[in-house]
Amino acid sequence: MLFSDPVAGPAETLVAELRDYPEWHRGRGRYGVWVVPVQDAALLEYIDTAREQLADLIHPSPRRQPHLTVFVCGFHGQGVEDDDFPPQRLARQVALLRACAGAMCTLPLARPDSFASAAFVPVRDAMGQLARWRHALGEASREVRQSPYVPHITLGLYRRCVAGDVVRRRLAMLATPPPMLAVRELHYVTYDTRDQLGPLETVYSVSLTAAEGTAADT
After folding, report:
1. Which residue of 3, 60, 145, 218 is surrounded by the most CB atoms within 10 Å?
2. Residues 6+ apart with CB under 8 A from 40
3. pLDDT(211) > 60
4. Which residues pair with 191 in a beta bridge?
5. Is the dihedral of CA 127, 174, 145, 186 positive or negative?
6. pLDDT tens, residue by residue, 143-172
7. 65: left (phi > 0), else alpha (psi -120 to 50), else beta?
8. pTM higher than 0.85 for the full model?
9. Helix (H) or strand (E) holding 166
10. Do the beta carbons of residue 65 and residue 105 sit within 8 Å?
11. Quick count: other Cβ atoms within 10 Å of Cβ 88?
12. Residue 114 confidence class, pLDDT cut points 50, 70, 90
């Protein structure tokens, strides 16, 4: 549910508790996702400004690089539990993605919106590029997901409980984002499961210009 829906949207924000979640990771060290990194200076500046304007509502996240999540893989390098993501699945995903990545493209952006848990910039998929990449990745592995996929760039997780009317008013005060997200590469990244807003580490990248992949040091 989104706050942009005044009828069916959330009544208030959900406060994110930033802590270690051992009941979730059960000792598994890193979590893997495919993302589109935000690389354009104008969009990065917009995100910084929007976060400053919402600073009293959201947790600061200076170490987590802005990105669009494409596909949630699971616990990196593991292969026992249902939410594990073993190396052979990553290798298969890379091969499939290289075959269909295509050329560089842009994805339209919309005015800021919000889940109950986080404010974000919506990303549109008018030409179906995201759907194509997600289909290819899903051919090799089941996505670990508890809710429908909504493409977005997170601005921040909420640290205060405030009413929906307040959220809508504050989001309306933000400027319109740049019109497009430029997509030059797709990155498979991991993060420390004990650090909810820790930095993303690129393990593999696929360039859209020539659909070439290059391994990165872990």
Report:
1. 3
2. 178, 181, 182
3. no
4. 31
5. positive
6. 999 899 999 999 999 999 999 999 999 999
7. beta
8. yes
9. helix 164-172
10. no
11. 11
12. very high
